[in-house]
Every structure is written in C-alpha cells, then in structure tokens.
Design a protein that fits this description.
The protein has a single domain, classed as Hypothetical protein af1432. It is an all-alpha fold. The chain has helices spanning 3-19, 33-48, 55-64, 67-70, 75-81, 84-92, 104-112, 117-130, 140-156, 162-181.
Length: 182
C-alpha cells in the first residue's frame, strides 16, 4: 500500500476513535485529529532527512500514538487492524496508569528506547507539536513540569533522530521564552 493510502486509512481510524469522545486539543476548540496530523507532519519532514527510515510504520504510529491512552481502542484491535509492531509501539508511547504519576514518563521512555528509532521519532515529534502556548488554565508549576519533561525526553531519546532532536531543542527554547513573557 502506498504512503498516501496508509496515511488516509490510519487517520480515518484515529479520527473516528478520538471523535467518539469528542476529544479536542486542550485549551482549544480544535478536534484532536489536528494534533495527530501535526505529529505525522513532523514525521514526514523527518523522514526526508533520515536514512533508512520506515515511513509507513512511523506514520501509522504517529497517527495512532494516543489511541490506547485516550480512547476505547484496545491493543488487540490495533494488532488486528494494523500490526503487532504498530500496537507495541503505541503501547510504549502510552503512559501506564499503574505506575506512579511522577514515574510515568520515564517508564514510557524506557519502553520506547527498546523499540526502533521510528518510535523514538514519534515521541520527539509529539512533544515538538505539544510545545505550543500552554492552555490558560495550566498553573505555572504544570507549565514548568511540562518543560522539564521535554528536556527529559530530549535527553533520553538523544541519538534517535537528529532532525527532530534539533527541532525539539528549538521548541524547548521557544517555549521557555514564551513562558518568561507570560
């Protein structure tokens, strides 16, 4: 299947799943599929700059990365419709709610690091996309914690994808500058 068809089939599945709960991007009225397509766009750009990059796999993972965490989608469903490899990647990108909250990110990063660099790239792309102006209801502590997490992601996934690592470093700096002004 060509990349365009893969993208279209995957985004339709993800949009349907996130749409079932009327999920929007926090702090906006935008449907959640906008976030997913932004992560996929980062992956498309990174693929052009990265040797031996499995774009089809990375696009599927990018578009599905929040389905286990935020929808009623099951691991088995992802496995059946997409593949075991895609389901395992999405599971690694999903925070484990049985782990104490303060340890969830490191737990997820540890699982991500056991998988291919495409999965690393999706996590980098996800945080790049999320480093926008924080929602107005976020406390200064939550904003600072989010930036600290971004630094942790950059450190833990160093060597995964230089293009996205550089983008994330710039976004972290822009986020810090934005937060100082507000």
């Amino acid at each position: 299947m060509d990349i365009q068809s893969t993208y279209q089939e995957t985004i339709k599945f993800a949009a349907r799943k996130h749409g079932e709960t009327s999920q929007i991007i926090p702090g906006t009225n935008l449907p959640y599929v906008v976030h997913l397509s932004n992560v996929a766009m980062e992956i498309l750009m990174a693929a052009q700059e990265t040797k031996d990059f499995d774009l089809k796999y990375a696009i599927q993972v990018a578009l599905l990365h929040d389905t286990l965490e935020d929808t009623n989608t099951t691991f088995e469903e992802l496995q059946e419709i997409f593949s075991s490899e895609v389901a395992q990647a999405v599971q690694a990108l999903t925070k484990n709610k049985n782990v104490p909250k303060e340890e969830r990110m490191l737990d997820s990063l540890t699982r991500i690091k056991k998988l291919s660099k495409e999965v690393w790239a999706v996590k980098l792309a996800d945080r790049i996309t999320n480093l926008q102006a924080p929602p107005a209801h976020w406390s200064s502590e939550k904003i600072q914690a989010y930036q600290t997490q971004a630094l942790q992601i950059a450190q833990e996934l160093k060597g995964g994808n230089s293009y996205l690592e550089n983008r994330l470093a710039r976004k972290i700096n822009e986020y810090a500058a934005y937060c100082l002004k507000h």
